[in-house]
Amino acid sequence: MSLDRRSFLKGAAATSVAAMLPVNWVFARPTSVEPLDLSAVKWSKVEHLPAHFKVLNSSPLNAFPPEHLLDPATTPSDIAFIRWNGQMPDFDNIDADTWEFTVDGESIETPKTYTIAELKNKFKTHTQQLVLECGGNSRENFYPNAKGNQWSNSAVFCAEWTGVLVKDVLADCGVKSDAVYTAHYGADKHISGKGAAISRGVPIAAAMNENAMIAWAMNGEDIPYMHGYPLRIVFGGRPGSVSQKCATGIGVRDRVHDGKKMAAPAYQVPKNPVAPGEKVANKDFKIIEEMIVKSLITAPATGGEISLGEEIEVRGHAWAGTRDVAKVEVSYDYGTTWQTASLSKPVNPMAWQQWQLKVKLPQVGYYEIWARATDSKGDSQPMVQPQWNPKGYLFNGCHRIAVRVA
Length: 406
Ligand SMILES: Nc1nc2c(c(=O)[nH]1)N[C@H]1C(S)=C(S)[C@@H](COP(=O)(O)O)O[C@H]1N2
Ligand SMILES: [Mo]
Description:
By secondary structure, the protein is mainly beta. The protein has 4 helices and 23 strands. The ligand Nc1nc2c(c(=O)[nH]1)N[C@H]1C(S)=C(S)[C@@H](COP(=O)(O)O)O[C@H]1N2 is lined by residues 80-86, 132, 134, 186, 188, 197-198, 227, 240-241, 243-246.
């Protein structure tokens, strides 16, 4: 979508919302009112983020929304958490028309470079919803505390992506039989200004068997700068770190990729279970290949008040890495009893699933509501915390919210 078209759409959204207001303040706007801008497309620095984001760091920029704003089945672009490992690219100087994406590496037969227009013309376009979750999502819940960004439970989102499939593009270049791993490359630099911020990859079977994407649109618009304009590699169900933003290429390696943040302990967990707080030698870590079963309560918002006798709808999402979710249960008595929620099917593999349950809390007072998902292979969420690990990855303990009945 061109910039003109984008500003036009933004204008249209602003007008239609304004039309629902009792006064036509679009033409006589008090100076104290912020102009309405629902589009995240052009946020390029921390100052642009709306107040609903909690900013953990501004350099590198890491920010997340409150959990209840993740309520829609498809996450709006202005709600999705933002994670950069290093400096952000120089967005002012990115030109989507001349952007190039290169496929190379030891295990590619014919290295090739494509413009975005060539990707669009040469390969079939796909649109799908994919869950993208940071490996460190929910880190703040680990005890003892694990170092790193203290994400709440909202470093996850499920947007609709449009682009071509990684496997179609790799096939066009020819993948040799000795291929082991992919290597993802982006335009952003390490915080020091030297070298790449991050370059991770996935086992070659994942790239060739799954519907991972090279995407140019998020939720039907250009990908917002913060989420990887103008082109992004997106692998659903795997640690968010493999979904390279501002992607400049993909390599196919004849070994496990050795790019930035591939080595332990980054995005790795201990090979053997360790006691909480225990030190682990780098040689005793293994790469996190897939995310695991988890659920999120997005309504009611935590901290709310309900009247006695009121029926509330408890609802949210559940996802399970590359698997489907088979069941979601809800408890409001600390796990003493559980009720099974109704659960939707994923719109496509690796999209998150919606669940809901109507509940009447029995008497006045304070309640915790817990949710627990179980995946298609029978794996479920622990109630307290999962296996502790030094970097605080893969926390999937039951999500808990609190409400009061008055
Ligand atoms: N180019 C680039 N891509 C990146 C990163 C980055 O720092 N640079 N961070 C990764 C990590 S760790 C995560 S969790 C996701 C976050 O995606 P989001 O900012 O769209 O939520 O992007 C991944 N892709
Ligand atoms: Mo991440």
